[in-house]
From TrEMBL, chain A:
Enzyme class: transferase
Name this protein carries in UniProt: Cytoplasmic tRNA 2-thiolation protein 1
Binding site for ATP: 69-71, 75, 101, 179, 184
CDD domains the UniProt entry points to: CTU1-like (cd01713)
Subcellular location: Cytoplasm
Function: Plays a central role in 2-thiolation of mcm(5)S(2)U at tRNA wobble positions of tRNA(Lys), tRNA(Glu) and tRNA(Gln). Directly binds tRNAs and probably acts by catalyzing adenylation of tRNAs, an intermediate required for 2-thiolation. It is unclear whether it acts as a sulfurtransferase that transfers sulfur from thiocarboxylated URM1 onto the uridine of tRNAs at wobble position.
Name of the encoding gene: NCS6
PANTHER family reported for this sequence: ATPASES OF THE PP SUPERFAMILY-RELATED, CYTOPLASMIC TRNA 2-THIOLATION PROTEIN 1
Residue ranges annotated for the Cytoplasmic tRNA 2-thiolation protein 1 C-terminal domain, each copy included: 305-335
GO molecular function: ATP binding; nucleotidyltransferase activity; tRNA binding
Organism for this UniProt entry: Rhynchospora tenuis
Pathway(s) where this gene product acts: tRNA modification; 5-methoxycarbonylmethyl-2-thiouridine-tRNA biosynthesis
Key words of the record: ATP-binding, Cytoplasm, Nucleotide-binding, RNA-binding, Transferase, tRNA processing, tRNA-binding
TrEMBL record, chain B:
Name under which the protein is recorded: Cytoplasmic tRNA 2-thiolation protein 2
PANTHER family per record: CYTOPLASMIC TRNA 2-THIOLATION PROTEIN 2 (PTHR20882)
Record SUPFAM superfamilies: Adenine nucleotide alpha hydrolases-like
Gene source species: Rhynchospora tenuis
tRNA processing in keyword set: yes
The family this protein is said to belong to: Belongs to the CTU2/NCS2 family.
Keywords carried by this UniProt record: Cytoplasm, tRNA processing
Lineage: Eukaryota, Viridiplantae, Streptophyta, Embryophyta, Tracheophyta
């Protein structure tokens, strides 16, 4: 019975034609719109939408040097591939580079870096690798050992942001592009609402950020669904001028960071996955809401300045990376994490020092190169 | 005075009250660690936990370290602050309280009754009796025909509600039990049933409910509508609106005051968490009617369960969400117009005057279904449609083009649904149709029977 039903189902689906071209048979349901389309139309519409986002938002100018933040994961691999394709196809006139950050996570980052090195060869894009060790004197493995698994993502995120900027300036890039997709941005909007971070909420939906900072960065995948980025490399279809098709699988590294399970973002991510199942367009709706939020003029917003220590962009006297690094180097892992308690700063240091002495820990001061 | 209290006083004198809890007083440092711990644990075990506010009564576990009395005072204090600082109720008002039967609106009703009784006592005692006492009415909207509730549950609920309201006197309150379908001449069951999206259906019932409440208020002469929306309900709404792409209109529904309606809507228990209100109902044995909690396959249901998970992780998350929404710019209609502050003492009145800051105060255009202010993009496409069709525009088209993108997607019929646009439009309640912008502009040319 089941076999008959299954084959009937197959017959029904294979009989359906692509709703876009009405010529070829539909091969998949498009996650964004649930349209049933063929492979060719999927690639066309996927690449075309990204091209339109780039043009309509004036993301690039001809002759610009663009650093593609490449982790070896699916988003950055597809980004590197699509950007280099569109650059050729539509003559953007861009100089593309791969920029990779080595956080020093054994068993994760060292493997994904191999993927990026292969991408360098496959796409013919020059690669620059910058490591936390050489910039800050700490690897993520060492940081997690010192602070545990609760706030490690904060350290990694803050350090990576600065690392990307420094790496980009080393290769004289004009812009950085990252593979943040629609799901990431929707999660960030929700996260900022849950945390009450109105300053970030007002900025996080901008497709280009940091225009008044060291190096602007943009997100061409802002409206691209994560599910579609996952589908894209698996059924890539290319016609050569002999008109025979061959399937090419884009090389990418598909394991989650080993230190990530406790991140708060997981709450938002799970919610969005459930939401997408009920209403796929909700992801774009969250982004639209984020764009439409108007902040009250009476709300106090942080003012942008520069870090007194390293000169990096910062809304406080010292940038977050310097604060966190100082905490690590002085054996105060909670420095810069959570809210400041009024008047208890002095006592905190006394307490922590005593605690560390008791536990027999003594972290020697490690100073990386913090001058920007 | 115990030794501990002496030490605490000394500690206060040395470090001041701003000192964090990590400070170790110098006296105790000299003692043996073991002795100190022993003393502390004995302290914990033998004494009963006292209320952190009055220090006299026993603190309840479910009341954040407060006793029952202080907990009630804390919640009533929040209610009173919301009412007075937003000038929600004036002495001449005739206030209609929407009572769903649930714990939140039960507490709202209880607190309003208390405020009214106190005002009556003052009036009785006063010599001049110049300022009257506001009157209160209660309305229960009977929706079992258009929702999936069992009708026999509805009968039981109604009896209980009658009994609850009759006990809330003096002063006595009129109770209006209104079946929602009696207010409009359309077949609401068919109309709601024709909406294919589950979330759209739920939201549409909510919009119908507001329309009905306004209708009752108008018919019986009430000039204010009180909704028992808690902080938790508002937090849910914030996430729901974000997820539906309504980021622009979100601030409109989450303020203390909403004057989009003929009877302005006020939310006096906006700062109280649902958990707190449920606890209060338990403590004071405030009878309320259990609303059937069906698992919802809608976005609203998903957001509800998400908020419950967030609450378990951190009980103050709902307040944080509310605070975030509070930083978004409210609309012009989220404040009363200046003549409403007639009864506010003159020293407080400047606080309520609407400050002109140079921005043009153009009235917002509202979606006729959900009353959300339209974004610039939505307005532009409305105008575009109007220009394209001119006077040829059909009433139905004019209505559909005036709706926001969210109602377009989840409520209005699509081509593949069984009901046509005309069919849907014909079933809409007339008051909803009359709100459409384009209709306003072409109504002079319509030959209709209104």
């Amino acid at each position: 019975m089941e076999g008959v039903e299954a084959s009937e189902k197959v017959k029904r689906t294979t009989a359906r034609l692509c709703s876009l071209c009405n010529q070829r048979k539909a091969a998949l349901k498009r996650p964004k719109t649930l349209e049933q389309i063929c492979r060719e139309c999927f690639y066309n519409v996927f690449e075309d939408e990204i091209h339109r986002v780039i043009i309509e938002n004036n993301l690039f100018k001809p002759g610009e040097r663009i650093a593609i933040g490449a982790s070896g994961g699916k988003d950055s691999t597809v980004l590197a591939y699509v950007l280099s394709e569109l650059n050729k196809r539509h003559n953007y006139g861009l100089d593309l580079f791969l920029l990779s950050i080595d956080e020093g996570i054994t068993g994760y980052r060292d493997d994904s870096l191999e993927t990026v090195k292969r991408n360098e060869i496959q796409y013919g894009l020059p690669l620059k690798i910058v490591s936390y060790k050489e910039l800050y004197g700490w690897t993520m493995d060492e940081i997690v050992k010192a602070i545990g698994l609760k706030n490690n993502c904060t350290f990694c995120g803050v350090f990576r942001r600065q690392a990307l900027d420094r790496g980009a300036s080393l290769i004289h890039a004009d812009k950085i592009v990252t593979g943040h997709n629609a799901d990431d941005i929707a999660e960030t909007v929700l996260l900022n609402i849950l945390r009450g971070d109105i300053a970030r909420l007002s900025r996080c939906t901008s497709i280009t950020t940091g225009e008044d900072g060291p190096i602007p960065r943009c997100k061409p995948f802002k409206y691209t669904y994560e599910k579609e980025i996952v589908i894209y490399p698996f059924i890539f279809f290319s016609l050569t001028f002999n008109t025979y098709a061959y399937f090419k699988k884009l090389d990418y590294f598909s394991t989650e960071c080993i230190y990530s399970p406790n991140a708060y973002r997981g709450f938002a991510r799970e919610f969005i996955k459930d939401l997408e199942r009920i209403r796929p367009r909700a992801i774009l709706d969250i982004i639209r809401s984020g764009e439409d939020f108007r902040i009250s003029t009476t709300t106090r917003m942080p003012e942008q300045g520069t870090c007194q220590r390293c000169g990096y962009i910062s809304s406080q006297k010292m940038c977050k990376a310097c604060v966190l690094l100082e905490g690590l180097n002085r054996g105060l892992p909670k420095l810069g994490i959570g809210r400041k308690k009024p008047g208890s700063g002095g006592q905190d240091q006394e307490q922590s020092k005593r605690l560390l002495e008791k536990k027999g820990l003594s972290l020697h001061g490690k100073h990386g190169n913090v001058d920007y | 005075m115990s030794e501990r209290e002496t030490q605490e006083r000394r500690h206060m004198a040395v470090c001041g009250s701003a000192c964090g809890s990590n400070c170790v007083p110098k006296d105790i440092e000299g003692e043996e660690e073991g002795e100190r711990l022993k003393r502390l644990s004995l302290d914990e075990e033998s004494s009963v936990r006292r209320c952190t506010k009055c220090g006299e009564e026993e603190a309840r576990k479910d009341c954040n370290g407060l006793c029952a009395g202080c907990f009630r005072a804390y919640l009533y204090g929040k209610f009173k602050l919301a009412v007075t600082s937003n000038a929600m109720i004036s002495p001449t008002d005739k206030v209609l309280v929407a009572f769903s039967g649930g714990p939140s609106s039960r507490v709202a009703l209880e607190f309003i009754h208390e405020m009214q009784s106190k005002a009556l006592a003052c009036w009785d005692a006063s010599n001049s009796q110049a300022l009257p006492v506001f009157t209160v009415g209660v309305v229960f909207m009977e929706e079992s025909n258009i929702s999936d509730e069992l009708s026999d549950q509805a009968d039981v609920a109604i009896d209980q509600i009658r009994s609850i309201v009759s006990r809330l006197s003096p002063p006595s309150k009129d109770l209006h039990i209104v079946p929602i379908e009696s207010l409009f001449s359309s077949d609401l069951t068919k109309l709601v049933g024709s909406i294919s999206d589950a979330t759209g259906r739920e939201d549409f019932v909510r919009h119908l409910r507001m329309l009905s409440l306004q209708r009752v208020a108008f018919e019986f002469g009430y000039n204010k509508l009180v909704l028992g929306l808690s902080a938790s309900a508002i937090a849910r709404h914030v996430l729901c609106a974000t997820v539906k792409g309504q980021g622009y209109s979100l601030p409109a529904d989450v303020q203390y005051v909403d004057t989009r309606w003929k009877a302005p809507v006020v939310l006096p228990i906006r700062d109280c968490l649902e958990q707190e209100l449920v606890t209060l109902c338990n403590i004071e044995s405030l009878k309320h009617v259990q609303v059937l909690d069906r698992p919802c396959a809608s976005i609203n249901g998903l957001v509800s369960s998400f908020i419950v998970r967030l609450r378990e992780d951190n009980p103050s998350r709902e307040h944080t969400i509310l605070r975030t929404a509070g930083k978004l710019k409210p609309f012009n209609f989220n404040k009363f117009s200046s003549n409403q502050y007639e009864y506010v003492p003159s020293r407080l009145r400047p606080k309520f005057q609407f400050v002109q800051n140079g921005e043009p105060n153009s009235p917002e255009v509202l979606c006729p279904i959900c009353a959300s202010p339209l974004t610039a993009t939505e307005l532009a496409s409305t105008r575009c449609a109007q220009q394209m069709k001119g006077l040829d525009i059909k009433e139905m088209e004019a209505f559909f083009w005036s709706c926001c993108q969210s109602c377009h997607f989840q409520i209005l019929p699509k081509e593949e649904t069984y009901m046509s646009g005309e069919g849907f439009f014909d079933l809409l309640p007339k008051p909803m149709v009359k709100r459409s912008l384009l209709r306003d502009e072409i109504k002079d040319y319509l030959l209709d029977d209104s």
